[in-house]
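Retro notes (design track)

What went well: tokenization of the new backbones is finally stable.
What didn't: we kept losing track of which sequence belonged to which structure.
Fix going forward: every design gets posted as structure first, then sequence, in one message. First example under the new rule, 120 residues:
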């Protein structure tokens, strides 16, 4: 069952706190998507399958010191059917080429100088 969780987070004017919140929320099990919402983008909207909203709020409190759970609601899954525009037109499928490991050729160049010269 998909859930939509809205959590109010205080960012304290730091840019790094947004990334901390995103990293902490993504690391929680069951999270599928994350978005910022609200008037000042101070709310984080998390959508996922079988989320533990209390654990997520507690995890965010550890990162940014203030997080308030505003709402938890279920999300209805809407499945839309894709319609083909014209039955005679098919999408072009490009063949995939698997590139192998590149081969590098090398040769050993030996110095063929005579060692008889005492100057060199």
């Amino acid at each position: 069952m998909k859930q939509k969780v809205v959590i109010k987070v205080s960012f304290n004017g730091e840019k790094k706190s947004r990334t901390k919140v995103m990293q902490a929320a993504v690391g929680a099990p069951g999270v599928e998507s994350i978005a910022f919402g609200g008037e000042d983008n101070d709310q984080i909207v998390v959508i996922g399958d079988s989320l533990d909203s209390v654990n997520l709020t507690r995890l965010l409190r550890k990162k940014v010191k203030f997080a308030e759970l505003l709402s938890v609601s279920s999300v209805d899954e809407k499945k839309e059917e894709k319609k083909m525009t014209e039955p005679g037109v098919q999408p072009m499928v490009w063949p995939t080429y698997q590139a192998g490991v590149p081969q590098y050729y090398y040769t050993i160049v030996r110095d063929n100088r005579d060692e008889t010269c005492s100057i060199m």
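Added context from the reviewer: Residues 53-64 form the longest helix (12 residues).
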